[in-house]
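Record type: monomer structure entry
Structure origin: computed from sequence
Chain ID: A
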Amino acid sequence: MGKILTAIGLMSGTSMDGIDAALLETDGENIIRRGPSLYVPYDDDLRGRWKEALQTAKAVVERGDRPGDLADAERVLTLCHAAVVKSFLARHGLKPEDIDLIGFHGQTVLHRPDAGVTVQIGDGPLLASETGIDVVYDMRANDMVHGGQGAPLIPVYHAALSANLPDGFAAPVVFVNIGGISNLTYVGADGVLSAFDSGPGNMLIDQWVEAHTGRAYDRNGETASRGAVVPDLARRYLSSPFFSGNIRRSLDRGDFLPPEKGEVSLEDGARTLAHVTAASIVKLADHLPQPPRTYVVCGGGRLNPVIMGEFADLAAAKGARVVSAEMAGFDGGAMEAEAWAYLAVRSVNRLPLTFPGTTGVSAAVTGGVIARKP
């Protein structure tokens, strides 16, 4: 057992809606004490800035490239995260010296696993300087150096949480994170992990609703609840080559695009995309070692009752139950941020972050770069 460290995890996901921060005390293995969390949404100007960064990043060839104003966007993003850390500490009566590490995901602006390139903007040394806390960042790159897809990274944390599930959750249990992109983590009775991206999560619905209404997302699934699934449109998404074959790969934000404006009504488009999110999870679960009996759902998608309803119906048809992370005793909104804190501790202890069954890496490897406080 390693030393128990106190870490703050910071996550800004593919939905680009805001920053999640969460406190964790852990040895990076079996001991996990979950602390408070905080969510700070981005304003419209910042969300627009990150969208511009996605376009600018298309010119990146080498991971360290920062064409156009990408370097400035990276600086602004880092300062936003520093402000969240300071607010988090003040809110909970903590000082920088109370925290051993920050696990810093940054913002993914480019992810091309087939080309071995992934870019998460976020300046680790600047964050360490601004907060006075050591920072572990750039945790995906080493996986890709060793032949992995660079995602998903949080399955090792899901595996640790699975040991703390209450009684009554039928195995096999699969953790489902429905963020901008959805991913699955299967934890076998023998501890073997199997994980992969399962398809678009909230991303397409968010883009569709924003393009029509200016709202950042479909709050409580209100728009989707007024629509109907358009079979031809759903079939078009679910027949994507991504879902066929036996080789799983991680997704980039640009791998799936929303329907063309005017192709279907606002409501039918939102409902169809909610169905696609749920159906893709159940479809890809066929690639797991055993059929799931219980799905534990975290991420923003768990708050959309249309997605959850579609998912529950499709899973029930295969003999499985769908529950939110909260029903399992966890915090579904903070789980990814908690995972980044957990990964930071594993990184400094040189423990593996990724495994052949999670990213396709050739052998289990650690990762991350540490930036020391001044």
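Annotation 1: The chain has a mean pLDDT of 94.
Annotation 2: The longest strand covers residues 32-41.
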